[in-house]
Amino acid sequence: MSTYDIGRVVADHGSVAVGYAGQVHHHVSSPRTPAAWPHLVGGIPSRDSSFQHRDEFDQLQAASGSGGTAALGQVLVGTGGVGKTQLAAEYARTALERGEVDVLVWISASSRQAIIAGYAQAGIEVLAQDPSAPEQTARAFLSWLEPKTGQQPCRWLVVLDDVADPADLRGDRPDKPGWWPPASPHGRVLVTTRRRETALTGAGRRVIPVGLFTPKKAAAYLTDVLAERHRHGPTDQINGLAGDLGHLPLALAQAAAYIIDADISCADYRRLLADRRRKLADLLPEVLPPDQATTVAATWSLSIERADRLRTAGLARPMLQLAAMLDPNGIPGTVLTSDAALAHLTAHRTPGKREPDPVTAEDAVKALRALHLLSLIDHTPGTPHQTVRIHQLIQRATRDDLPSDQRGRAARAAANALIDAWPDIERDTTLAQALRANTDALTRHAEAAMYQDGGAHLVLFRSGRSLGHSGHAAAARDHFQHLAAETSSRLGPRHLATLSARDHLAHWRGEAKDPAGAAADFAELLDDVEQVLGPDHLYTLTIRGSLAASQGKTGDPAEAATALAELLDDFERVAGPDSPHTLTTRGLLARSWGEAGDTAKAAAAFAELEVDIRRILGPHHPEALTVRSNLAHWRGKAGDAAGAATAFEKLLVDRLQVLGPDHPDVLDTRQDLFSWLAAAGDTTGSVKAYAELLMERLRILGPDPATLALHGDLASWLGEAGQEAAAATAFAAQVEHTQRVLGPDHPETLAARSNLARWRGRAGDAAGAAAGYAEVLEHLLRILGPDHPHTLATRGNLAHWRGHAGDAAAAAAAFADLLEHTQRVLGPNHPHTLTARNSLSHWRGRADGSTNGSRRGVNPLR
Which of 130, 191, 350, 394 has the CB geometry, 3.0–4.6 Å to 27, for a possible disulfide? Predict the structure, then answer.
């Protein structure tokens, strides 16, 4: 018996039959007694006890007109498992309970035959039609739904659940009508489907996309389902599991059932789910809940088969397998239409679908559209960096369906496709970020496949370099630290891939403000490379250059210059004067001269190198632009601030043209330009420009070390513009930030603390400056030792501000001791030695009362 209350009796609908859900009435020739309304044909799926009210349900209700009727049909569209059927069932159930319909027909519309059978059943139950002629009976029922003049209207709702193919609703021939219910002011049509063709949305039908649960509703659903069985879990684990399952309603329901059946916690289930060796199908209940017909792992299989028959036959499945290896949150279209992707699709068409011609980019796009039409992916060509999105569980089910050898081939094809799509010059930072995200996802899904054929895939190195060149040196260091460990474990410690990963690790360790660590890494690496490749191999010589440059950054640029001069002779002998290796070594040597104090020699050397590199590589090669940047820098350091500013202004124009406005090198060039403009006298203008640049860097790169350094530059120029107290306040904020983010011993933290002490002194707090430098000195003595140039410079600054705090004798004694150390460590003619000697003379005079001196005295060591 129907569970619904009998409503009004309609006496003038023609021949009708009394019927209830599930009853089949045999044909009788005489008219039937009028049916009792409302009448349900078919069975509405049972209500999930933890049903979550959703916005899509409100949209369905809002489309109903007065009295609960609506002239327009509605189509719920979404991928399998998002809860379309539950929404439709709730809508239908509500319409019955509110007395809004007289006849409700629920049809599982998986095929044309199922649709016809559903209408025929309605014709049998409502009209007492002949059950032996189902198509004729179905037509009779659809005809009866049409409004007729003079008849009391019947309010009806037809639900076509899970329409598999829009063609199933079309007529067989142009002269035969299709299987859509007729337009009627008294009827409603509700369709659920995974298909997105426009054929489903014509004739005034309204599409309502059905997406995933919101994170809040997903967590609420899990909480409610578990609570029904007196199971509870920590909120963070509930939220975490909801996120792990991508907030997919069907997955949440089946995961909850598994947790209850297996008597485990959410945390236990999350650990099982995180184990990539387990298939998704193994983590679902053996017996499904009564309202679920298939597991989440199998729910998309029919859609994949249908997609494979659409458009370019046999390409949808291998395309989905390729996408399953990449980032679910967005795959650039250029990756999936690259030469490597096309080669994979050509070689892996679905069996029996092979075509003689290679797959083209147009074919690949058709495959993506087929997957999109079946709601297996979201394909949006208008967003080139995130053209394809795919649910993470569809990805996992697709990967699980592949044998291990095929999974490895698909993963390597995806890696090759990423390399094909990666531009040599990363003008577009958003694209670069998307490519890195896809590489990370590929590594998570199939890291072992990246170490085939005795090597490591190039995409692992390309992604790390992109990370560093995008301004994230510390992240690049961490990336290569992991890569070095993996290559050593999988390929051996002396494999060339391992040596290369260690090389990159050392480089980015140095760029992350750890020159001592970089020098130690390069020294250890050099021994291994020499043993593997020999002393004259170009790679061995390259590591020698990196080691020398790193040692120079640790405080001994003069020794680095000596080593680089010897290396330059070796490169010219082995590779020739025009080799890129030789040119790079000339640049390293020139920079070492400048850092050793001979700025004019550095500028002259870069000027000569710039001529040669233009001739060999061209004026707009990235290396040529880097040389021009170094030339401008050392020209300024040699005393020509205006010339440096002019050179950086010209360089900025060229770098913008080559690299684009958001590239880190362009941001660095702008920073250099503003610095030298300020040094040339435009302090006020530079402070404003620095503030604007800081906001742009934060937008593009986030709070990376370079941005923190820019904070410091801005604070310094505030002080140079006469706002010493404001500079001290800004450095105090920077100290707090760097100490929290980088730690108390990080070079950036110590630099910020030094600058804070300096500007406290310049603002008139000499005692505060001395106390600040004393704290910095404690760190440097412990970290770098007593003879490091930074330690010596800090001792000079401490002595200077002690003198200005009123203790000239202590300042003189400190400078006497410092002079002895600088002469021994740096030599008698080093600029720091000369500064210490002048400061000693100054403070001895102040202590003896023989000189008044200035308030600030001789410039301290910096």
Answer: 130
Q: What is the mean pLDDT of residues 737-756?
A: 84
| Cα of 828 vs its chain's centroid, Å | 54
Residue with tokens 């490519």: 435
How far apart are the C-alpha atoms of 429 and 439, rounded to whole Å? Answer: 15
Nearest in space to 542 (alpha carbons), one of 504, 592, 510: 504
For residue 67, the 8-state DSSP code is: G
How big, in percent rounded to 5, are the helix, strand and coil portions of the chain? 60, 5, 35
Instruction: List, in sequence order, every beta strand (DSSP E) within 48-92.
Output: 74-77
Where are the domains positioned within the chain? 39-207, 215-283, 310-450, 765-862
Q: Cβ distance 423 to 435 under 8 Å?
A: no
CA neighbours within 13 Å on the CB side: how many for 763?
Answer: 22
Rounded to whole angstroms, the Cα distance separating 701 from 474 reads: 13
Give the C-alpha separation, 772 to 767, whole Å.
9
Q: Per-residue confidence at 233, pLDDT binned at 50, 70, 90?
A: confident
CA geometry: angle 802, 806, 810, nearest 5 deg: 50
Provide the token pair at 710: 């820019």
Q: State the CATH class of domain 39-207.
A: alpha beta
Cis omega before residue 38 (within 30°)? Answer: yes
Which range has the worst mean pLDDT, 47-61, 93-107, 252-266, 540-554?
47-61
Token output for 222: 């899990």
Q: Which residues contact 707 (CB under 8 A, 6 or more apart)?
A: 471, 694, 697, 698, 701
Q: What is the pLDDT of residues 420-450, one digit of tens each?
A: 999 998 888 889 999 999 999 999 999 999 9
Query: What fold characterizes domain 765-862?
Result: 1.25.40
DSSP 3-state assignment of 83?
A: coil
Digit-coded pLDDT (tens) for 192-216? 999 888 877 766 788 899 999 999 9
Per the rule left: phi > 0, alpha: psi between -120 and 50, beta: everything else, 105 is beta
pTM of the predicted structure, to 2 decimals: 0.78
Distance CA 24, CA 479 (A): 67
Please report the beta strands in 251-403, taking only residues with DSSP state E, as ranges in sequence order: 378-379, 388-389
